[in-house]
Design goal:
Largest sheet: 3 strands, mixed
Number of helices: 12
Helix content: 55-70%
Strand order of the largest sheet: 2-1-3
Oligomer: single chain
């Protein structure tokens, strides 16, 4: 009954009718029947705003990016697993990042490609909830993983002699487990707050994936609490993680400046530059999306695409092209598969 009342209230508001119908006759004289309205069973993803007529071009671009992302991160993962020289904490976390970079774009890219190809834009209620959950679970987990990787670089450069003792296999497993657990809790809170509200129409999502800012306005009840908690949760977590990274790299920068030899400074900087580039690609979009004073649908979509689809591809490029050990391991993998000739 609570859901039906909320659905009726929402429909009356949409149709320009007072919430309670006529002030004198109340519910009885309302032209809307309660039994005609039920909960939404599916949502319609309208896609990227202001891109009508560009579906074919966008389909080709996103398909190529998605394929390159999957292949690139898979090769990095295979290279790390197959090379015993890369069985260190730094490459353990890089392997985890490549794994998440395979799954993160897979949350939204397949459905986006289906829509751009002219097929159904509909997504089920459970599918929408699952998409929102895994989007925030994987996004949050990657954000925490960047902080863990920055701590690993801090220990390696600032405490090189104690590095094997501090970053022992047990601590690496604990950090990886806690990273995944925190990401799961974060996503569970946001998904529960979003989908505990009733949805009874309209069901058109003006975006290419189900995310909190575009789903909550469709709720048939007051969503202010969910909006505040979602904004605070995402914002504080992003700022906290970014602050920990900033502290780590400030300490790393001071340590590098103290290195006397130019070769030593160059080597220390090269081990961090790829990670810094990946962090900028990841945190830049988050800050723009959730902290813009006046939301711009097109800007939000472009920035979200950079974060969800392009950034995982760039990570594979950044870490493979900037890291000599990864390049050597990749070359051995490709040679073993007969795809390249031995040098």
């Amino acid at each position: 009954m609570r859901v039906m009342r909320a659905c009726l209230r929402r429909r009356l508001e949409v149709e320009g009718t007072g919430i309670w119908g006529s002030a004198r006759t109340g519910w009885a004289d309302s032209p809307v029947k309660i039994e005609n309205y039920s909960e939404v069973t599916e949502f319609i993803l309208l896609g990227i705003p202001h891109t009508e007529g560009m579906e074919t071009v966008l389909f080709v671009i996103f398909l190529l990016i998605y394929i390159f992302t999957l292949v690139g991160n898979f090769l990095i993962l295979v290279a790390i697993i197959s090379s015993s020289r890369l069985h260190t904490p730094m490459y353990f976390f890089l392997g985890l990042l490549s794994t998440f970079d395979i799954f993160f774009p897979s949350v939204s890219s397949p459905k986006l490609l289906v829509s751009l190809s002219g097929n159904s834009r509909a997504i089920s209620y459970r599918g929408c909830a699952s998409q929102l959950f895994f989007h925030h679970f994987l996004g949050c987990t990657e954000g925490i993983l960047y902080s863990v990787m920055s701590y690993d670089r801090f220990v390696a450069i600032c405490h090189p002699l104690r590095y094997p003792v501090i970053m022992n296999p047990r601590l690496c497993v604990i950090l990886a487990t806690c990273t995944t657990l925190i990401g799961c809790i974060h996503a569970t809170i946001l998904t529960s707050l979003t989908f505990q509200l009733p949805y009874c129409g309209p069901n058109e999502v003006h975006y290419y994936l189900c995310d909190i800012p575009v789903v909550l306005p469709l709720a048939c009840a007051d969503s202010s609490l969910a909006q505040r908690v979602g904004f605070t949760n995402v914002g504080l977590l992003a700022l906290t993680l970014f602050f920990t990274i900033l502290v780590s790299y400030t300490r790393i920068g001071i340590a590098i400046l103290k290195i006397r030899s130019a070769e030593g400074r160059s080597k220390a900087f090269s081990t961090c530059s790829a990670h810094l580039a990946a962090i900028m690609c990841a945190y830049g979009p988050i800050i723009i999306i959730y902290f813009q004073s006046t939301p711009n649908p097109l800007l939000g979509a472009v920035v979200q695409i950079l974060n969800n689809i392009v950034s995982p591809m760039l990570n594979s490029l950044i870490y493979s092209l900037r890291n000599k050990e990864v390049k050597r391991a990749l070359k051995r993998v490709l040679c073993g598969a007969g795809l390249t000739a031995e040098a």
